[in-house]
Each structure stands twice: as structure tokens, then as C-alpha cells.
Write a structure and sequence with these properties.
The complex is a heterodimer of chains A (217) and B (227).
Chain A: H1 2-17, H2 19-40, H3 45-69, H4 73-82, H5 85-115, H6 122-149, H7 154-177, H8 188-215
Helix pairs in contact in A: 1-5, 2-3, 2-5, 3-5, 3-6, 3-7, 5-6, 5-8, 6-7, 6-8, 7-8
Chain B: H1 5-23, H2 39-66, H3 69-100, H4 109-129, H5 134-158, H6 189-220, H7 222-226
Helix pairs in contact in B: 1-6, 2-3, 2-5, 2-6, 3-4, 3-5, 3-6, 4-5
The chains are: A mainly alpha (217), B mainly alpha (227).
Chain lengths: 217, 227
């Protein structure tokens, strides 16, 4: 546990020292939601839901993309010497999940201020969006690692990540419809939440198994 | 030419399924009429795609365990042939959909899932193409391939069964769900007798095509692969 905590602390310190990247993403969040507000004003619940999740997708891919791309080759060799790959990828996942959840909180607030709140159950929507942000960040962490290793720009991450995130995104959009008052058959909602959790566990297990192959050079 | 028994089986099965598929008497179900014959061609595409992609997964795992470049080349070629069969499945499905549901594309959950699955594997090909170093390409695309397969299976097997769909085997399928590929109990014995040879024939053809491409690649890259 201790090495993971140290690795997370390292990422946090880097974030604090390079605050421009963090604020850059914040500005990205704010300006894109503002443009959205100018474009569609107060949308109906279905559009609101869809647009909200699309926004989360773009915000998370931007927030997570730098996590591996920022590590230089020399630094990766250093991590290779001092920690294990499993610890490293878990630390990255936890850190990215926290960053993405912060972004979601901020974008949710902006959505509520600018685009209104057509949802009937705000807390349920908030909880679903936090869980969704967590799911999305898990997939994108591994995609970021692959993109960084392929020594490509962030574009390859979108190419790899977008098709792969669709199962989770489809589930999230359906689950969050329940916060807008859409009734589901009894058990259907629980089934979807369980399926999403199952996918999350699968992604974590795959990342832990596959990452060691990625980082050896 | 390398000629083995399973290639003969492949040719015989495919010839049989083409001849019988167009000539046998088919049951008249709903608004399907004669288009039900497409069942012998559309459904085997998906069986073949899943088989080829699973073979590709197997070779990716084998590569990561042994670091033998030959396995990676196999994984790549099987995935590429799998994509071709996915595209053929989409095309045969669209034609069928035009005649039964009225549109080439009606945003049915299963159509969407199939299209996304093809996108996932297109991304795999793009990733392979983006790297020139053989070992690096093998390792990184192997990792992506394994990850993609495990996301792709819930996408095409679990999710479509949870939603309403025009295809058989959705939430409100004819037999209350079940396997979307087999159409529940509505498949009569004569159709079954043509369908299964068609499935195996197409699977063998997929393997055959991949095998030719793999052998060609191994010949042209002899020095790299044997190094």
C-alpha cells in the first residue's frame, strides 16, 4: 500500500507544480459547457442526459491523456527500478479517478447553472455521474498507457478509447435516465448497475494483468 | 500448394450451403418470406468473425507469454480477416433489413453493437500501423487486442440481450430471449441441416484466408521473423 500512496503523492505534487495543465483542463470544461449553453440553452431531459455524458467523455479523455504521456522515458526507467508495475498502474488509476471525479463535480455544477436541472432526483444523478466518471477513467488509464508506449500523440488515445468506452457509456446513459424519472422494470436497474460494476472489475483486473507487459522495454 | 483435408471440407460445405441454401423449401415466417435464405449467409459471418477474433486473442496471449513474433503476425492477420467478415455481416444484414424492416440501417441495438465492434478492431489495425518496430508493435497491440476482446464480448453478447431489438433474441424475442443467432425454436430441421455446414464452411474459409496471408507475410519477412 505504501508505494501506491507515494506514487499518488508524486502525481499530486507534479500536478501542483504544473498547475497550468490542471487549470487548462478546467478552462476546457468551462468553455465547452458555455459553448454548449449558447448552442442549445435549456435542453429537454433526453438531450441533457446525452450531452452530459458526451461532455464527460471529452473531459475525461483530456484529463487522463496526460497521465502517461507526461512521463518521460528516463522517469519511466526510474519507476521501473523503484516500484512494481502493479503498484504503478493502480496508483495511476486511483489518481486519474480522483481527477476525473473532480472534473465531473465541476462540470455538473456548470451544467446545473447554465443548462438547468431537468432531473427529478439530483442526488441520484450526481452519484451516477461520479460512478460513471470512475468507470471512464479506468478504461482511459490503460488507453493512455498504450498511447504513451506507442509514442503517439493524444489522437491515438481517442481512436483507441472511444469505441472501447461505448459499452460503459451506453449503460451509464441508460442508468442515469432513472434520475430523470424514467421507470424501469423491477430488477432491470440493479442488473445494469451490476453489469457496469462487473465491467469495471474486469477492466481493473485486465489492467493489472496487462500493464506489466506494456512497461518493459 | 499445401492442401489438407479441412480445405476440402470447407469447399464441400460452402458449395452445399450455396446450392441447398437457394434451393430448399423454406418455412414462411412472418414478413421474412424468401429473405429467410439470407440466414444461411448472414449469421455464419458473425460466427466466423467471433471465431477469428478469438483465435487472434489466443495468439496475442501466446505472444505475450513466449515473445515469439510469429504469434503476433498470426494475431494481426486473424483480426484483419475477422474485420472483413464483420463488414460482410453488416452488409448482408443491411440488405436483409431493407427487405424486412424497411431500412438499411434502423439503429437497432445489435446493428449498433456490431458496428462498434468493427470500430474497436479498426482501432487495433490503426494501432498496429502506427508502430514500425516489430517487437514493440507486437507487445503493445497484443495488450490492446486482449483488452479489446474482453470489452467486445459483453458488448455483443450481454448488452444486446438486455434491450428491445428488431433482431430475434432481444428482451422480447420470439422465445423470450435466448441466443440471437439461432432464432430460438423457429428454425426447422431442414434449415438446421443447411445452416451448420454453412457456419463451419465459412469459419474454415476465414481460417484459410488468414493462413494464406500469414504464410505470405512469413515468407516476405523471413529475416525478421527468424531473427
Amino acid at each position: 500500500m505504501k508505494p501506491i500512496a507515494i506514487l499518488i503523492k508524486k502525481d499530486l505534487l507534479l500536478e501542483l507544480r504544473h498547475q497550468h495543465t490542471f487549470f487548462g483542463i478546467l478552462l476546457y470544461v468551462a468553455s465547452s459547457i458555455f459553448v454548449l449553453f449558447l448552442a442549445i440553452g435549456h435542453p429537454a431531459s433526453d438531450v441533457y442526459n446525452g450531452v452530459f455524458w458526451m461532455m464527460q467523455l471529452f473531459i475525461s479523455i483530456n484529463a487522463v491523456a496526460k497521465s502517461f504521456l507526461q512521463e518521460s522515458k528516463g522517469r519511466m526507467i526510474y519507476f521501473y527500478l523503484v516500484s512494481s508495475p502493479v503498484q504503478f498502474v493502480i496508483a495511476k488509476m486511483i489518481y486519474n479517478a480522483v481527477v476525473v471525479i473532480i472534473m465531473v463535480v465541476l462540470s455538473l455544477i456548470l451544467f446545473l447553472i447554465l443548462l438547468g436541472s431537468p432531473m427529478l432526483d439530483l442526488w441520484r444523478f450526481a452519484v451516477i455521474s461520479f460512478y460513471g466518471a470512475f468507470s471512464i477513467s479506468l478504461v482511459f488509464t490503460l488507453m493512455s498507457a498504450i498511447a504513451a508506449k506507442a509514442q503517439q500523440n493524444a489522437a491515438i488515445m481517442a481512436i483507441l478509447g472511444f469505441p472501447l468506452i461505448i459499452p460503459q457509456l451506453m449503460l451509464l446513459i441508460r442508468i442515469s435516465k432513472s434520475a430523470f424519472g424514467l421507470g424501469f422494470e423491477s430488477g432491470a436497474l440493479t442488473q445494469m448497475v451490476l453489469l457496469l460494476s462487473g465491467l469495471n472489475i474486469l477492466v481493473i483486473v485486465l489492467a493489472v494483468i496487462l500493464f506489466p507487459f506494456l512497461w518493459k522495454d | 500448394m499445401k492442401f489438407t483435408w479441412w480445405k476440402v471440407v470447407c469447399i464441400v460445405f460452402l458449395l452445399f450451403s450455396f446450392i441447398a441454401g437457394f434451393l430448399i423449401k423454406v418455412p414462411n415466417i412472418g414478413n421474412l418470406h424468401q429473405t429467410i435464405r439470407n440466414f444461411f449467409f448472414h449469421v455464419p459471418m458473425w460466427f466466423t468473425m467471433i471465431t477469428l477474433l478469438t483465435l487472434s486473442l489466443g495468439y496475442s496471449i501466446a505472444y505475450l507469454r513466449t515473445q515469439n513474433l510469429k504469434y503476433d503476425i498470426r494475431a494481426g492477420e486473424y483480426a484483419k480477416t475477422g474485420i472483413v467478415f464483420g463488414l460482410l455481416g453488416l452488409a448482408t444484414g443491411s440488405i436483409w433489413a431493407k427487405f424486412t424492416w424497411g431500412e438499411y440501417w434502423s439503429n437497432d441495438p445489435k446493428q449498433m453493437a456490431a458496428a462498434i465492434a468493427v470500430l474497436i478492431y479498426f482501432a487495433y489495425v490503426v494501432l498496429r500501423g502506427s508502430m514500425n518496430d516489430f517487437d514493440k508493435r507486437a507487445r503493445i497491440s497484443g495488450v490492446y487486442n486482449i483488452f479489446a476482446w474482453f470489452i467486445y464480448i459483453p458488448l455483443i453478447i450481454i448488452l444486446p440481450r438486455m434491450v428491445q431489438s428488431l433482431h430475434p433474441g432481444g428482451l422480447e424475442g420470439a422465445q423470450g430471449g435466448g441466443n440471437p443467432a439461432l432464432g430460438g425454436g423457429s428454425l426447422d430441421p431442414t434449415m438446421r441441416a443447411v445452416f451448420w455446414p454453412a457456419v463451419f464452411g465459412w469459419i474454415l474459409l476465414g481460417i484459410w484466408i488468414s493462413d494464406l496471408k500469414i504464410r505470405y507475410f512469413l515468407l516476405t519477412h523471413k529475416t525478421i521473423v527468424n531473427a
